Amino acid sequence: MQADREGGWLATFYFLYFCALGAFMPYWGPWLHAQGQDPLAIGILTAAVQFSKVLAPNLWGWLAHFWGSRRIVPWAALITAAGFLALWLAHGNFLALLLITLTFSFFWAATLPLVDATTMDWAQRRGTAYGRIRLWGSLGFIALSLGMGGLIARWGLTVFLPGIAIFLVGAWWVSRYLPYSALPAADTPRPRLSGAFRHVSLWFFLLAGLLEQASHGAYYAFYSIYAEQHGLGSAAVGMLWGFAVLCEVAFFWWGDRFIRRRGVPLVFTGAFILTAMRWGVIAWWPGLIWIILVQTLHAASYGAFHLAAVHWLSERFPGVLRGRGMALYASIVYGLGGGLGALGAGWTWAHWGGRGTFSAAALLALLGAFFLIWALQPAPALEKEAE
User: Fold this and answer.
1) Nearest in space to 298 (alpha carbons), one of 273, 282, 278
2) Contact (CB, 8 A) for 259 and 307
3) What's its membrane topology (predicted)?
4) Domain residues for 265?
5) 333-348 pLDDT, tens per residue?
């Protein structure tokens, strides 16, 4: 009974968190445009959110190592919600928008890696599957990426900030009840994070992941535009985005079992190869049938990749180090990789067009697969290395 209740809190947090993210990602740019920001300003404010994920998770992960996630996640979630509401006070002033955006994104970046570590710890203690908890985040993303569009169509962009803040306040409330792991006693020796840095496989893993996520820059920035250029309407494009995330949900449901049977190396390698295949097909065969079919590969390019990465990190970063390992992963792979990928996609789109952009994305994923080979070399976990 207690396990069901704890799993329910975790699933609810993921659902609410990704509801907010699903409402934010598609409509942040339009909201900024409605506030009178020009394309350069919109680009800077969007990059501020992305690049905040580079440094912030590592700082929060380091603090959680000593304070515990229980003391950080609720406060970070609450300040994030307040930050969104504070955007009202900017009244379209760019510098005020930038300052507030840097603030809320700095705290927003604290929550997900620490909750991921909490969920993985809990799943291992309870003998259950991380993916079956995490999939509720994907369902929340689908619900609000589609639902916010309907709300905006009815009431305009005035619903953007309060709509997101409601879900963030809900995430804050739920975060107070998550099954955080207890901190070791003060006199208990703790493993060193520095021990992980001596294993070159960690750096190959981070580089491979950075390249795989950078390849998604073309997808997140230009897939909708590219699909519309090849005859799809905006409604059809929205359905394709939703279909891709549903495929991701399906993998999260079955993925832990598949990883236990087939192993992390096979799932990881397959994710990279199928990611390259996905971008290559979009680049060279952009017809309707192929575009629909390759959306199923979102289950590999994001679902399988993320789930395999979480399992890989859990083996390398035990116990109290898990939060810092997840934070390092989030900052390098999603923060730096995502930011560089978006910037690179903008440049290639301007100079090489859609086909060249997605071809470059396919090459990035293949290059990531090369470094992945070295990342998958065995290395010991860190539990015996004490501070």
Assistant:
1) 278
2) yes
3) Multi-pass membrane protein
4) 195-379
5) 988 998 888 888 888 8
